[in-house]
């Protein structure tokens, strides 16, 4: 039942046969099972997924789990929605039907065959991409057909058109990689060089997809040596940060840029490369444009970079760093507060100027509120350490004695 109908239950009656027998809500994608009963697709799929093998209404055993779309009933429901639009009922959209396994196999075969003309292979890939976008169920089906190995080979093949490679890349980043896939990419210097070069492609979509694949590989590789082979390339930091700098970057581009930068900065040995590429200024300038989850990652990255001397210096040199971090405390989330406090602790420990800026920005009030809040223990410990560090900057009777605590590590996302 659409939310818009909830307050209208007393004035409008949904026909009984338009309701799903399982959920009792208006059906959006009615399908018929072998017993002849019709249910909403999501409801009957959930019923079967939990181990039930009978028809919910008749209790008869379902020997065939094929779901047949009931187009006639769906059109009747749509007509009813239109007829009752004056009551706030919205017309249900025509659902896209799930992909057939035979179709997926055929499309993958067409795309992988080097004997097929390029335009035919591109057409197959674009159709696969459309199916993958349609639903999680389609992505699960496509994923079960060895799609990763096929796409990885297409992305990095030197004997095909660049357009075919770029289209394959766009599909590949829609699927989680296995560790085997990640190792196969990370252990090949030519493949890493290819991805690094794509970060500077004229198409922003290609650049973002390359950054997404790099992040997937770094996050999915257990070997620290292989991760280092990727993050040790300054050009990769420059490419990822350039995506964040781009004023035309979409929310997806910003999300992937932040995820990529965070993953690359987890390795301590190469954090200085992020700083050299302009990470400090970019993170501070972009922080206000990010949603909650991305802001948490950005603040976690800031804390990581503040743990090295050159990173601390770079953030301290930005006039907005300290005021913005102080303002962030208790504003976004517990995690964000913890990372902001950790970054401030590093900055104030390294610079008296940062201490003065923090006091001017009102950090005392923020820290006192933080210590009394329901925030994480790690955040409170960092706040206690900051209070102790800054106690000479305000009257002695304004802050009680605090014990010394060790700053904990950033929790990976």
TrEMBL record:
Keywords, sorted A to Z: Transferase, Ubl conjugation pathway
Catalytic activity, as annotated: S-ubiquitinyl-[E2 ubiquitin-conjugating enzyme]-L-cysteine + [acceptor protein]-L-lysine = [E2 ubiquitin-conjugating enzyme]-L-cysteine + N(6)-ubiquitinyl-[acceptor protein]-L-lysine
Claim: Transferase is one of the keywords in the record: yes
SMART domains assigned: Ubox (SM00504)
EC number: 2.3.2.27
SUPFAM superfamilies assigned: ARM repeat (SSF48371), RING/U-box (SSF57850)
Superkingdom of origin: Eukaryota
Pathway: Protein modification; protein ubiquitination
PROSITE patterns xref list: U_BOX (PS51698)
Role description: Functions as an E3 ubiquitin ligase.
Protein name: U-box domain-containing protein
């Amino acid at each position: 039942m659409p939310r818009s109908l909830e307050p209208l239950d007393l004035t409008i009656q949904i026909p009984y046969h338009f309701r799903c027998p399982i959920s009792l809500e208006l059906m959006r994608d009615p399908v018929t099972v072998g017993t002849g009963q019709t249910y909403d697709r999501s409801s009957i799929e959930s019923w079967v997924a939990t181990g039930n093998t009978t028809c919910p209404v008749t209790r008869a055993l379902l020997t065939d789990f094929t779901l047949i779309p009931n187009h006639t009933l769906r059109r009747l429901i749509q007509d009813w929605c239109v007829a009752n639009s004056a009551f706030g009922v919205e017309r249900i959209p025509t659902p896209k039907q799930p992909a057939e396994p035979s179709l997926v196999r055929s499309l993958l075969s067409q795309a992988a065959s080097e004997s097929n003309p390029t335009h035919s292979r591109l057409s197959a890939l674009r159709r696969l991409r459309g199916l993958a976008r349609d639903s999680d169920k389609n992505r699960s089906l496509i994923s079960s057909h060895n799609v990763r190995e096929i796409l990885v080979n297409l992305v990095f093949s030197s004997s095909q058109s660049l357009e075919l490679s770029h289209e394959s890349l766009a599909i590949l980043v829609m699927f989680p990689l296995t560790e085997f896939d990640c190792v196969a990419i990370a252990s090949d210097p030519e493949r890493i060089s290819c991805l690094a070069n794509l970060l500077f492609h004229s198409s922003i979509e290609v650049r973002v997809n390359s950054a997404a694949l790099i992040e997937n590989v770094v996050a999915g590789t257990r070997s620290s040596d292989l991760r280092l082979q990727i993050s040790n390339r300054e050009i990769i930091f420059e490419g990822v940060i350039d995506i964040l700098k781009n004023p035309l970057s979409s929310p997806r581009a910003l999300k992937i840029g932040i995820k990529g930068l965070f993953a690359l900065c987890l390795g301590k040995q190469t954090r200085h490369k992020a700083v050299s590429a302009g990470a400090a200024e970019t993170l501070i300038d972009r922080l206000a444009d990010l949603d909650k989850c991305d802001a948490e990652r950005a603040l976690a990255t800031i804390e990581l970079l503040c743990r090295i001397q050159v990173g601390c210096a770079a953030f301290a040199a930005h006039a907005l760093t300290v005021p913005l971090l102080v303002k962030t405390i208790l504003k976004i989330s517990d995690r964000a507060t913890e990372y902001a406090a950790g970054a401030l602790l590093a900055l104030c420990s390294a610079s008296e100027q940062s201490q003065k800026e923090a006091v001017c920005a009102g950090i005392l009030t923020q820290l006192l509120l933080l210590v009394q809040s329901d925030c994480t223990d790690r955040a409170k410990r960092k706040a206690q350490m900051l209070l102790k560090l800054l106690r000479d900057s305000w009257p002695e009777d304004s802050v009680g004695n605090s014990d010394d605590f060790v700053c904990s590590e950033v929790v990976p996302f």
